[in-house]
Amino acid sequence: MASEKESQRRNSTIKARKSGSAGVKSATVAAVGLIAATTLLAGCGSKDAIPADDAYQGNSGESMAAPSSSESASGAGGADNGAKARDTGKYRDGTYSVDNQPDPSGKAPIDVTVKVAQGDITGVTVVGHTSNDISKKHQAAFIEAIPGVVVGKPLKGLKVDKVAGASWTTQAFNDALDNARSQASVQ
């Protein structure tokens, strides 16, 4: 009888150890998972996020700054049409400027000046405004490449794809082209 009680006690001890061990393992796995998730999510709220250079980034439809525009003195007379004018597809010769055009991040605006003659772009100047080193690199590459992409092309309907790996600067440039078309449109 003593050996039977001892056998039952041993079995109870083994069961307790097994269930205690399983509980410790489960708690350990849960703790490791929680630490991993916390580590992965730690940078998600960073206010200084740097834009990636991939096909999945894009415009959220929001921007932190509204674009301002002005027609330069060399543009064909008339008042500043700005965003109130519509694109008619027929354009006055002249130079049209869009200042402080924000990119989708709202942190790296550009100034764009487009020269138009007989409906074609005859010159383009882009000035970048960013303090972020990565954005500076992308903007500089874009600024160097964009004249070769747009000069000689018709202004009507022109939209450029990602230039020099600068997705957000390209988006800001396309938005500036829309604004310039409105400014240049013959109403």
Automatic annotation (TrEMBL):
Protein name: Putative lipo protein
Bias type Low complexity, positions: 60-74
Compositional bias annotation for Basic and acidic residues: 83-93
Gene3D superfamilies the record matches: 3.90.1010.20
Disordered: annotated segments: 1-25, 51-108
Pfam families (alphabetical): FMN_bind
Record's GO cellular component terms: membrane
Domain spans labelled FMN-binding: 106-184
GO molecular function, one term: FMN binding
Lineage, uppermost ranks: Bacteria, Bacillati, Actinomycetota, Actinomycetes, Bifidobacteriales
Organism: Bifidobacterium subtile
Coiled-coil features, chain-numbered ranges: none
